[in-house]
Structure formats: C-alpha cells, structure tokens
Amino acid sequence: MGISETMKALADPVRRNILEMLKSGPKSAGEIAQVFDLTAATVSYHLSQLKKAGLLLEERQKNFIYYRLDMTIFEEVLAWVRSLGGNENEEK
Known about the structure:
Layout: H1 3-10, H2 13-22, E1 27-28, H3 29-35, H4 40-52, E2 56-61, E3 64-69, H5 71-84
Antiparallel strand pairs: 1-3, 2-3
Helix pairs in contact: 1-4, 3-4
C-alpha cells in the first residue's frame, strides 16, 4: 500500500481509535463495535479501510475474525517521516 492510502485511513478519528484499541491485542469486530456508537456495517467499513491501507491483519478462528495491527506499514511511514527531517548532522 502507498502512503496516500495510509494517511487517508489515519485521517479518520474512529479509525485512529480502533488502532489505539488494538494496541492491547487482537479484537473481534464485535468487541470493537461495542466501544463505538456505530452500526456493525459502519464498523465493518472502517475495518475494511484500515485493512486496505495495510494497517490491519485479520485472523480467522472458528466463527470469528480477529483484527490486529500490522506494524510493517507503521515502520514504513515512520521511515518516510524521518526522511523529511534531512540529515541531522548537517550544520544549520
């Protein structure tokens, strides 16, 4: 995924809150939906946008799908942001 899709996904506060929730470990869509005053369809939409941006991985266990953070894309975004800072050893 490109950084544009990632930034677009991160721009939404609900999606950022979902990512915050997942810091503590994998959660099912039902567990995530309980926290928000949103329909299941809306939560599903947010999860699909986060997956499309490469921020989530899903794991199926019996009748449930558990979502967890995919740290790979976060590392790529951090590296890109750091590259914007230029060379820290240059004189100013």
